[in-house]
């Protein structure tokens, strides 16, 4: 993982120079917010960033939740996301803006502090592997619970909240699985460590409502695409055993894209291989992200 340049606090600097002090407040306590965005090389050779405006809206919403005042406008951050891809000469890449508290004091309550912003970009292939996109993955219901909605702020992509996700992911991998599915505090399915979850049963697609989950940009896109393809989509709570008897299950996320889930807790989902509905939605998603459908061209920001 490396690129030529990183944009940090107002300028493009060399990758190796983009360092922070060990007393950086966010490093200690996690009050920082970030985004994960993808830029795809389109069918015509141009590059386009997928849902850039929505990601930047969410970055500002996340910052608002934790009361970090981003010292740039949305327009400036949007333009910088395009710039970082260009200065690094990428055709296809991942873009990671991060907003964090600079060092000043290390008490929990700091009155005056500098809000720092960096935008990183690197080439990142399929998050769970090419194999996962094609053949699906095996998931485990985690022993870790998703944050109570009054403890974690699930609508924000907030740095410190990923301790919960990382513990769940490590537990799943240690047990021989690829990914963890977390339940909410009432025991209903919430989301995976960094992906939203969808299930199909009797031709109806269900996904978790916006209770304890992050409102994924990919989730929104997949709901819209699925409805446009003629599927009924419900945002409704469901239980782990409903997943076990689902015909198909898949994850969505900028990193994981549309990943089929073929096994949960040792139980085959459907036939135990990626289902036809999942694969058709996945295909449509990649075609749209690569600019092959004019009717969704407002989802893309060309460089
Ligand atoms: C980022 C993330 C997602 C996926 O959101 P996208 O906007 O689709 O990338 C889902 N859940 C969690 C916890 C996340 O951090």
Summary of the model, kept short:
The chain has 303 residues and is of the alpha+beta class.
- Report strand %: 25-35%
- Classify the secondary structure makeup into a structural class: alpha+beta
Low-confidence stretches: none
Write down the secondary-structure element order. EEHEEEHHEEHEHEEEEHEHEEEHE
Number of β-strand runs: 17
The set of bound ligands, ions and cofactors reads:
pyridoxal-5'-phosphate
Portion of residues within helices: 25-40%
What shape does the CA trace take? globular
| End-to-end CA span | 22 Å
**Rg (CA only):** 19 Å
The main sheet comes to: 9 strands, mixed
Tally of alpha and pi helices: 8
Mean pLDDT: 97
């Amino acid at each position: 993982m490396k690129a030529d340049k990183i944009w940090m606090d107002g300028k493009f600097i060399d990758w190796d120079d983009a360092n922070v002090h060990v007393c950086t407040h966010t490093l200690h306590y996690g009050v920082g917010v970030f985004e994960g965005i993808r830029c795809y090389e389109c069918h015509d050779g141009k590059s386009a960033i997928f849902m850039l405006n929505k990601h930047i809206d969410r970055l500002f919403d996340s910052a608002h939740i934790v009361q970090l005042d981003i010292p740039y406008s949305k327009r400036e951050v949007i333009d910088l996301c395009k710039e970082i891809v260009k200065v690094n000469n990428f055709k296809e890449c991942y873009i990671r803006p991060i907003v964090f508290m600079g060092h000043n004091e290390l008490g929990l309550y700091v009155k005056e502090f500098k809000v720092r912003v960096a935008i990183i970009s690197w080439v990142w292939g399929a998050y769970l592997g090419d194999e996962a996109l094609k053949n699906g993955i095996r998931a485990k219901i985690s022993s870790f619970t998703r944050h109570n909605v009054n403890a974690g702020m699930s609508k924000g992509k907030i740095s410190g909240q990923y301790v919960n996700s990382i513990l769940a992911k490590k537990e799943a991998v240690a047990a021989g699985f690829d990914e963890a599915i977390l339940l909410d505090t009432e025991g209903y399915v919430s989301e995976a460590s960094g992906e939203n979850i969808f299930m199909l049963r009797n031709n109806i697609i269900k996904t978790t409502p916006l209770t304890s989950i992050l409102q994924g940009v990919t989730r929104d896109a997949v709901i819209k695409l699925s409805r446009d393809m003629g599927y009924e989509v419900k945002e409704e709570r469901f239980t782990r055993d409903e997943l076990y008897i689902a015909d198909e299950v898949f994850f969505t996320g900028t990193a994981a894209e549309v990943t089929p889930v073929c096994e949960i807790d040792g139980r085959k989902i459907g036939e135990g291989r990626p289902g036809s509905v999942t694969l058709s939605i996945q295909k449509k998603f990649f075609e749209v992200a690569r600019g092959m459908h004019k009717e969704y061209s407002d989802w893309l920001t060309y460089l």
